[in-house]
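Could you help me review a protein record that somebody else here produced? What it holds is a sequence and that sequence's fold in token form. I have pasted the whole thing underneath without changing anything:
=====
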Amino acid sequence: MNTNRIPNRLANEKSPYLQQHMYNPVSWFPWSKDAFLKAKTEDKPIFLSIGYSTCHWCHVMERESFENEETAEILNKHFISIKVDREERPDVDAVYMEICMAMNKSGGWPLTVLMTPDQKPFYTATYLPKKGRYGMFGLDDLLFKIAQTWENDKDKLTSSAESISSFIKERINNQNEKEEPTIDLLENAKAQLQKAFDVKFGGFGSAPKFPTPHNLLFLLYEYNRSEDKQILLIVEKTLDQMYKGGIFDHIGGGFSRYSTDSKWLVPHFEKMLYDNALLLYLYSEAYRATKKELYRYVSSRIVEYIKRELTHDNGGFFCGQDADSEGVEGKYYVFSPEEIKNILGEEEGKEFCHDYDISPKGNFEGKNISNLINNSKYIDVHEKRKKDFSKLYEYRLSRIKLHKDDKILVSWNSLMISALAKAYFVFGDESYLQTSEKAFLFLKNNLIDNNGRLMVRWRDNDSAGDGKLDDYAFFIWAALEIYDVTLNIDYLQSAIKTNEIMLEHFFDFENGGFYSYADDSEQLLTRPKEIYDGAMPSGNSVAAYVLTKLSSLTADVKLKEIADKQFEYIAGEIKNYPAGYTFSLIAVQRYLYSSTDLVCVSKDQKISSEIIRYLREKFMIKNELWHINTILKTKENSDILTELIPFTREYYIPLEDNNTMYYLCKNNTCKPPVTQLEELEIFN
């Protein structure tokens, strides 16, 4: 990047991705009214480029094209060019990614869109090289062709744009018929995942392989229900193989984005907050189900990585780290045997190279990615390598530092908050809860306005963006996860109040389903309802999950009716291929199976830690307890609890200071109240 150039309009933006392009010779606009007005005034098509700051191929396209004077001249003369950070504007990304998928049967980033000044696209693609090669169309040739057609036969392009826009709008409006969610959805998805399972290396399908933690979490919960060992085998095999491979950073902790090969060896080296959050949640739950110490270890290394690399001093979490170092993907992470021996010493280095597949030949472009794929003692080898990891990590820090996207997003932060709360419940490590609560407080202090509305991102003391569905649904999930492990009514209140706003501004009360952005936000070409569970769960699936949890916890009849409508919508949408919607299926699991309800009434909030300890112990004995709803009523929270959950009015606080009453209901039947946790007949 040549910083001697005069910066373009992106210099005024907070997004790290947009700032990466501030010295491009391309005359970029951010997504704004000014850009579209200029396009209409000058009668030019729009060149829209969507990406994110840790995206390897976004960097490649910038180096090849957007930093090139020749390409910039074409864009500046014939187009109005707009740059969008998909993480700041997931609504814009969702609209045009859906169109790209419909037109090309594939998508990804960088996303390239050519469209009319009224935002109607006539061409979409992902990465394009500057010049055509290997059968791939070149960007310069494409731009010349479009510019000529716009000048000589504009009606051809505008007609195409109208047809594409009409098709997409019609597809959104023609929703599937509503269906009753049934166990058949779960069984069909399970069969589809079993069929796609890679018996040799774990995971599903072939290269590239994504962790997709919610696939495994769904199967893990199905195992809880059925105790089918074949399902557990799929989960354990995949978790073990991911850990053994290079997708897991054995030296620094945490997981990379995905594996470019089928055996998890060569990752796409960028590390994202959301991947690590979902994997922490999964490995924690897997430990609970299996008691396998390896999963405790992996969980601890994820948390270690997040705390060290992606945590703001005030508690929020950054988005991720780049794959590239000095313009080379993965250079920061790889080693030669000589480097290892120089750092660790001859003998220790030789042993490390043997354990972690470091050879003169190399396993990645002549260098080496540390991995345990061929090490039969992979479960225990990390125990003797702790000091080695520390030395190698310190050495790695002396290399050119990786770019860090230091935005703080509500949606991704909420995923990590949920995961840390879950890890605290499973492992009992107080620091996990403290980190989770501190991050939640950061969101409350910095990313919620006076009306309770969420924003999208915070950076450099600046908060911006109207919150999208993912922000609301994930935030509610985070609040409920912390509530579950603290029984602090403040978190439940946050969840309920935010849920009310989500319903008011995002829910389709007529047809079911949640729109991606609010009714009072900027209205784009379409207003989609995203439901596919890709790298992250969809906002609709998480909204369904929190709806069924809240309606069950509060016994709110109106909320239950809304949940019913949401699940009918989901069942209709996912019935043809339920395996593509596994977080929706996790919500369906919770919706279909009855929960256990425990109301604790005490004079003292301090009893909460004893209750959580008791439930943790029960969790370790039996798997079915993941559907428990726990409420703690005390003198301090009695009034607000009655407002939030009216039926708790009937539970009276014991007169004796040291007395606590426990009321247990299961399978629609209530047990006699008891005064000792140990007297509860949870599994009877």
About this structure: The chain is about 50% helix and 10% strand. The chain has a mean pLDDT of 94.
